[in-house]
Amino acid sequence: MQAYTVEQVAEILSIGRDKVYFLIRTGQLRSIKIGKLRSITDRHLAEFVASLESDPR
To answer: Is the pLDDT assigned to residue 33 strictly greater than 80?
Structure first.
């Protein structure tokens, strides 16, 4: 299992860091917290992308 920082996820998705935090805060993107560090696993990222692909918009 791979874990990414918020900054790495922002770069992977080509979005801003604030947008990643917004997605986490609204429950659209799951994450884990270890101490003060927020991390997103590869599984969380895959689930998020899959939810975008299945969104009928």
So the answer is: yes
